[in-house]
Design brief:
It is a single chain. The protein has 76 residues and is mainly α. The protein has a domain of 44 residues. It has one helix and two strands; from the N terminus they run ββα. The structure holds zinc ion. Zinc ion (ZN) binds next to loops.
């Protein structure tokens, strides 16, 4: 009998809001950190997320400019 591999179960830490394995007793991200360090950790992840969003916007603008350039070339 073949048992299908289970999906990795994760839970969200209420303290640092990061995901960690269900098998862990406590969060692997903020375990042993002080409140101040947890705040810094959350800020770090928030900054990274914002950076990715800005990068996405930049690619969107470049794509739009390329489309505009193609349109100008084709219409000319
Ligand atoms: Zn945590």
């Amino acid at each position: 009998m073949i048992i299908p591999p289970r999906l990795r179960r994760v839970k969200k830490c209420e303290r640092c809001e990061l995901l960690f394995s269900y098998n862990e007793m406590s969060c692997t991200h903020c375990k042993g950190l002080s409140e101040q360090q947890v705040v810094a950790l959350k800020q770090k992840y928030a900054d990274e997320h914002e950076g990715n969003a800005n990068l996405g916007k930049l690619f969107f603008i470049i794509a739009m400019l390329l489309l505009l350039a193609l349109f100008i070339i084709n219409s000319g």
